[in-house]
Amino acid sequence: MARNDDHITVYSDYVCPFCYLGRRSLEEYQETRERDLKIDWQPFDLRSQKRGPDGEIDHSVDDGKDEAYFDQVRQNVTRLKDEYDADEMLDLDDLPENVDSFEAQVASFYVNTEYPEQWLAFDEAIFEALWIDGRDISDVDVLVEIAENTGLDGDEIRTAIANEDLRDRLRDQFTEAQQDGVTGVPTFVYDGYGARGAVPPEHLERLVEET
Question: Is residue 54 helix, strand or coil?
């Protein structure tokens, strides 16, 4: 990857709590810089192993994540909420049941492609809708409302979400991320070097300033 001092690549999935927390860490790091790093967002499907041929999540598929795994996730999320002053963030158990991020990622992918200057506001609003307001971002009506509240055309976003070509292009993005060696999110990449997880701001600073 060619160096671009103004951009950091971020692979993420809206349903990942550590992606929300990782963005909080990135915001803290951004506050120490004279110029913001622009986010080169790359979508990632955290539930790809559980998707059936129809694209729906099959929750009966064993992905190796048992209750002990989720207990550890809860503990790590609680610790990082305190560390990053993210008390507004909902607990995992307070989220809508079986929420899926695919439609949200289709919408975000479209906005990032067609309206890049409005993408960040839309992206942040999706994160806030799920992790602060507990809204179901699987619901197209919710995504349309988020779009309209960020100055986008709701009907256009509704049409984009239903576009099969766009949905296929998003799946291709998921595949490319895996081919690039991304195995989990968030993953931050700068100048060919990466950091995985909701790493602290000082870690992001080292990634950017010392590579």
Answer: coil
Q: Starting from the edge strand earliest in sequence, which strands make up the sheet with 193-196, in order?
A: 38-43, 7-12, 187-190, 193-196
What is the DSSP secondary-structure string of 142-167? Answer: HHHHHHHHTT--HHHHHHHHT-HHHH
Could you tell me the domains of the chain?
Answer: 7-209 (3.40.30.10)
CB-based contact 104:14 (threshold 8 Å): yes
Residues 160-177: tens digit of each pLDDT:
999 999 999 999 999 999
Distance between CA 189 and CA 186 in Å, rounded?
A: 10
Q: How far is CA 137 from CA 13, 41, 48, 124, in A?
A: 12, 18, 17, 13
- Nearest CA to 133 out of 74, 77, 89, 73 is that of 89
Whole-structure pTM over 0.70, yes or no? Answer: yes
SS3 (DSSP) at 125: helix
What's the CA gap between 45 and 106, in Å, rounded? 11
Minimal CA–CA distance to 91: which of 70, 121, 105?
70
Which amino acid is residue 108, in one-letter code?
Answer: S
